[in-house]
Amino acid sequence: MINGDEFTNRLKKIMDYYAISAALFADKIGVQRSSISHILSGRNKPSLDFILKITSVFEEVDLYWLVDGKGHFPKLVSNNTFSSAPLSVESSNADEKKIQRIVVFYTDGTFDEYMKY
């Protein structure tokens, strides 16, 4: 069974990593914004469909890490680095804002981050 509080913390970590709001996160995975709100507040637990939508849209999210906290986020891709894909974020207004963010995490706890606006 999924621990709701721990799942919520992992969900927030994903949104922080991509620097996106809950509303934009909901839009990206194709669920109603209220679904995210209810999960974040602890009112509802995530369905399998909800979890699979996250892992299909955000390829860096490991299914086992998301469900039970085992594994890594972002996914480990070699002996000493983790994956990080470029991210494009569109604002909700008429102006489009593109952000490209690349982060490389190392097993010693350090990381390199690159941002392009």
Automatic annotation (TrEMBL):
InterPro entries: Cro/C1-type_HTH (IPR001387), Lambda_DNA-bd_dom_sf (IPR010982). PROSITE patterns: HTH_CROC1. Residues 25-66 form the HTH cro/C1-type domain. GO terms for molecular function: DNA binding. This is Transcriptional regulator.
